[in-house]
Amino acid sequence: MMLNIHFYSYISFFKNLSSLILILLLFSACLLGDDIETLRRKAGNPQAEVVPGSNLDDMINWLYDNVKNGGEYIFEQRANEQIEMGRWLHFDDKKVTITIRGTGQGQVISSSLNSVGDMFGISENVTLILENITLEGRNNNDWPLVYAGGTFIMNDGVKLINNSRSHGHIGGGIYSGPAGTVIMNGGEISGNYATRGGAVIFQGGTFIMNGGIIKNNSSANDGGGVSIENATFEMNGGTISDNTTSGAGGGVFIYDGGTFNMYSGTISNNTASVDGGGVIVHNGMFKMNGGTISDNSTPGPGGGVCVNHYGLFEMNGGIISGNTSSGPGGGVSVNYKGKFNMNGGTISNNTSSGSGGGVAVNAYATFDFYSGSISNNTAFNNAGGGVSVDGHMSTLNMNGGTISGNTSHSGGGVFINYYGTFNANGGTISNNTAEKGGGVTVHHQSTFYFNNGNISNNSAIVDDGGGVFVWNAFFYMYGGTISDNTSVSSGGGVFVNHPTSFLNLSNGNISNNTALNGAGGGVFVNYEATINMSGGKIIGNSVLNNVGGGVCVSQTGTFNMSGGEIYDNYASSYGSGLFVDNNSEININSPASRDSIYGNTGGNGYQGYICDFVTFRINGADQTVPTNW
Questions:
Q1: Inter-CA distances, 508 with 16, 116, 271, 511, 574, Å
Q2: Bridge partner list, 427
Q3: For residue 8, is it within any domain?
Q4: Which residue among 294, 348, 418, 470 has the highest number of C-beta atoms inside a 10 angstrom radius?
Q5: Mean pLDDT of the chain
Q6: How far apart are CA 499 and CA 529, in angstroms?
Q7: How many CB atoms sit inside 10 A of residue 529's CB?
Q8: What is the total count of domains within the chain?
Q9: pLDDT tens for each residue of 406-420
Q10: What is the distance between the alpha carbons of residues 431 and 456, in angstroms, rounded to a whole number?
Q11: Is 23 inside a domain boundary?
């Protein structure tokens, strides 16, 4: 009897010890960040059954004979193996989890020379997990390496490499249909080729990338790395780099209702021959909450990101930098009814040989800018160092954020062209540089509504318009500040030129701007253009070597003043407050409005200087010219 007591005591002791070991293993594994399958194996979970067999086919055949619903099985791949393609993992309606793991330094499963097909096809109820193993394809294959109809999980040490799909076929490494889910926790997908989706294509389903690298893949049409079509892509980490396409989307192609949510990771050094060096969104949605898109390139639009045809790009964080394009949009290009909402993040150090070093908006597209920074971008030999809005009624709505340190030929900060619209409700445009229009250029029947915000410390280093340059376009100033800008020539603050152009100044300040060699320290109006001043202030501006410290009206321009103030300006020559040149027109609604031009200095002693052959009216009554005060 005593022996039995001791025997059962030992059994109880070992049971408790086993439970303790199991708990310790689970606890330590959680601390180390292992996944669920690793926890099960380390804990000796009886559900994860090691399948017998000396090769892959033996293990698959055993599984078909012994599979159970809900079963979890482990294939130990102990040696390199060359196989015939076409392993379809389907077990009727049974839910099965299979882990294939390579032993030692990892093993290679490769395609036999004359075999075509997918290496593994995964049906809807099956989960396939790969660990520490390489799947190597072949040239001129008709299938991807993995067909994900169910769930496919890639962990560290896994490689999907060197599978080249023949012409017209898609998804070199992985293809997923509507029910497929792929989770990439680590590993590598490289050296694959397809017509579309060189590494991965999803036509439905979900792709979650937590780590690993997708590199050196290529496609004939679109999506050198990843193609997402009516599917969802969530990127939490990892790298997509050095992929190429002869079409659009060197790194990632989002198409036909696809959704891409980027929280972290890097998309870099990808190339597209058409557009979207890093990412293209075509009738899909891209939300960037973090991560980096850098050093991608294309000869077309969108070195970093291209948004086309009703696509939506929402940037809440992250960095888009160092990308290049020969077309518009070194960083981001938004085209044909696409939309870009920027709520945060940074777009910097991108370059374009076309327009929009940072962002280009074209063809009925819209850019809503709420917060973040667009800085240090360059449009070589073209327009819009920071942002270009060019053509067919495209729109920039700036409600906040900063556009600074950008460079271009025209519109160092912002360039608006060809029926474009710029609504500025807040934010800052500062320290930008251009040959003309250091801060903003408004061009060719475009419209600028300045309601609030700051345009400051910008420079026109060759020509006119340190703050704003208006040519054949319309500028409504309802508020905000244009200050501390500089032009080498005329219009330190604002330059308005062309018969149809005008500046309507209702409120706001044009202050402390400088024209170094030309006229009009605050505002210069030229060639039948018009300034209508009903409010606001033109103060503290300077002309160092010419006329019109506050305002200069030249060459048949028109100045209509019904309110506002012009004071504390300086000119080295005539008209420290206002200078009106021959053949121009000035209309002041009352003597009181004329008296609102005061306290200006220099100007050879004249606040206002009205030349010969000027039409000058006060309250509609013609005045004698020349006249000065």
A1: 80, 71, 46, 10, 26
A2: none
A3: yes
A4: 470
A5: 91
A6: 5
A7: 28
A8: 1
A9: 999 999 999 999 999
A10: 7
A11: yes
pLDDT tens digits, one per residue of 139-179 = 989 899 999 999 999 999 999 999 998 777 899 999 999 99
Please, which residues bridge with residue 108 across strands? 134
Flag whether 150 is in a domain.
Answer: no
Distance from chain centroid for Cα 533: 39
**Is residue 2 scored above 60 in pLDDT?**
no
Give the pLDDT band of residue 391 (cuts 50, 70, 90): confident
Nearest 5 degrees, angle CA 195-CA 199-CA 203? 70
Q: What are residue 61's phi and psi, to 5 degrees?
A: -65, -40
CA 148 to chain centre: 30
CA distance 276 to 306: 5
Say how many CA atoms lie within 13 Å of 453 toward its Cβ.
28
Contact 174, 204 (CB under 8 A): no
pLDDT number for residue 113: 65
> Which pLDDT score is estimated for 46?
55
Q: CA-CA distances (angstroms) from residue 289 to 57, 293, 317, 343, 499?
A: 44, 12, 5, 10, 46
User: E strands within 32-71?
Assistant: 48-50
For the four alpha carbons of 516, 519, 525 and 528, in that order, the dihedral sign comes to negative
* Token pair for 101: 């793991």
Which residues, other chains included, contact 46 with Cβ-Cβ below 8 Å and sequence gap of 6+?
Answer: none
Question: Please, are residues 413 and 432 in contact by the beta-carbon 8 Å criterion?
Answer: yes
Contacting residues for 31 by C-beta, under 8 A, at least 6 apart: none
Q: Write out the DSSP string of 532-575.
A: EEEEEEEES-EESSSS-SSEEEESS-EEEEEEEEEES-EESSS-
- Residues paired with 346 in a beta bridge: 319, 373
Reduced to 3 states (helix: H, G, I; strand: E, B; else coil), residue 30 is: helix
Domain that holds residue 27: 2-33
Residue 11 domain-assigned (yes or no):
yes
Q: Whose structure tokens read 């059954």?
A: 49
CA distance 615 to 466: 29
pLDDT (mean) for 450-462: 98
pTM for the predicted model, two decimal places: 0.91
Average pLDDT over residues 562-566: 97
Per-residue tokens: 155: 């962990």
pLDDT tens for residues 92-130? 999 999 999 999 888 999 987 677 888 999 999 999 999
State the Cα–Cα distance between residues 413 and 455, nearest whole angstrom.
9
